[in-house]
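One such given next:
>
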Amino acid sequence: MTAVVAAALKLAAGTPAIRFSRLRLIDERPLVSEDIWLPHDRFEVLRAIDPREFGDLPYPLDE
């Protein structure tokens, strides 16, 4: 995790985090490339879920 990401998450440098990288396609062409960073201590349970179960959007998983 970069210092910029750590600062955005209000985490100390070196704090564990989870990173999701996604490439969204439309008609087989790249539309959006994104990295989602989550604090490890709050979202550790996501590591136990098979990524194929996330579907198109991971956002419902944080509820």
